[in-house]
Structures are given as C-alpha cells and as structure tokens.
Design a protein that fits this description.
By secondary structure, this protein is of the alpha+beta class. It contains eleven helices and twelve strands. The strands form three sheets. Strands 1-2-9-4-7-11 form a six-stranded antiparallel beta sheet. Strands 3-8-5-6 form a four-stranded antiparallel beta sheet, with no helix packed on it. It has a two-stranded antiparallel sheet with strand order 10-12. The longest helix has 19 residues.
Amino acid sequence: MRALPSIPAPPARRPERIGYADLPVWVPGDILCASDDLHWQGVSQRTYRYRGQDVEIPPLDCFLIVQYEDGFTPMQRQFDGRWTRTSCAAGLFSLLTESADSHWHWTQGITVSHVYLTNDLLCRLASEMEGRPVDEVRLHDVLSGADPIVTQMTHLLRQEATTASVGCSLYAEALSTQLGIHLLRHYAAFRFKQAPRDERLHPVQARRLQEYVDAHLCDAISLEQLARVAGVGVCALSRLLRSSWGTTAHRYVIDRRVERARQLLHRGDLPLKAVAAATGFADQAHMTRTFKARLGCTPGELRRGH
C-alpha cells in the first residue's frame, strides 16, 4: 500500500503563490489518496476529507477542480472581490483559476476530489486548439456546477491515483488532455500572445485604479471592472499588477480597505461595525480577521494605540 503524503509545516509568512502540496497548511484535512509519487505530467490528484472551515487560501500555481464526492454543506466563496453563496453536494464541482486569492467558508463535513492542472498544460492545449500561441488561461468563477464530463474525468483520475495500475501515468495524461480541452471549451477565457510591450502600469492607469477602488470600497469590485478602468484585458491587468505593485487585484482592494479603515479608526469614535460597513468588509468579524492577518492587531487594538 502506498504511503500518503505528509502535511508540510506552516511557512514563516504568507507566500505569493503555493503549490498544491502546500494546500493542507491553509486548508487542514485528511488526505485519503494522492498521485504525488506517480510522476504524472501536467496533472495531479488528491482526495481530502474536510470538516467545516473558514479559510483564506493564497493563490495556487495551478488550476483547481474540486469534485464533491460525499456530504452536503452550505458554501460561501470570495473570488475576485465577490462573495458567492450556494450549497455543494456529491456530484457537483467547483473551479478555481490559477494565481487567484480565494476565501472559502463551509460548515459541514465533506469529501472532495481535487484535480490540479498546470498552466503549461492548459496554455499548450489552448494554443493547439486555436492554432496560435496563448499567453494566459483563466477559468470562469464556478462554485457549484454540474457537468457529467467533469465528474467522469475527475472520478477516473481519482481511480488511477488509488490503484496505480500499469500505464496509469499515460492514462492520467490522456484524461487530463480530455478534461483540459473540455474546460477550455466551456469554462475558460484565454489571451493570445502579443508583441512585447511595456509590462508596467502607466501612472495614469495607476491613478485611475486607485481613484476607482477608493470610490467603490463599499461595492463588490471585480477584476473585470478594474480591467475596464485601466483599459486593458483581464489577463493583462493581472500581469501589470504583479509587475508594478507585486500584488493581485483582490489583495490590492483589500489593502485599500484596510488603509481606509485605519484612517477612520484614527480620526474618530465611529463604531467598529460602522467602520467595517463604510470600508466594504462583509462584517466586523471579517474586518477583524483581515486586520489580524495584515497588521497583527485588531481594529480595537489599533484604535487604542496598541
């Protein structure tokens, strides 16, 4: 019987991106099976049993398909600055695009099968489909989807990771190709490679982004909205934010909310609940968690000068 992978130790600080093997640090759970030692190319698989949790996950360096195998739970997820609320049960699936911050909250125990596809695999498949080089692939925001093809492909990959039969590496790669093409056809957008250009935000773009975010802190600000403000595509804006400010759109919006909340806390005695509402946090508890993660103190402690 193959040994299951061990859970890595927590890092000293939050990384910019994590690999799928680091996911248990941020989302604790029991690993039921994994393809880690099978030498698959472009695809990996793990199955987890989770209790109810509230977790913020750093951006993954791969694309994630979550197939719900057992259990039923209310589910909330924040992605691109928007919260989606639904229920997830056996037979449904979620998608998470590569390099995206996300915040998940569910209350009941569930068993899920994770399939991880690399950016290189999906860009190569998209380039072959379109007949010209694709620069970046982005999966749609799907939290509770139903698709028999996705379910079948993830089930077969889990089966291969469990049995490790002869030829399983070749079979897994063939399955990942089928799954990747299906996702590209129905659940993805991609950007073609263009001629080299300045890969940093122009000062005018930077000013417009800051002014727009500051004026809409109480709203759900999406990556698509910010891309329109900057006058570029979604994938281009992601690159520009990383190269210019070393951040993602979601983290930039949260940073501006934290800064506005700090200003309000220093200026007067507005109740903490009102400060949270005025700066776009879901509630006071959300603001407190964010302050603890980014500043190492609570809003109340900051107001008292601790």
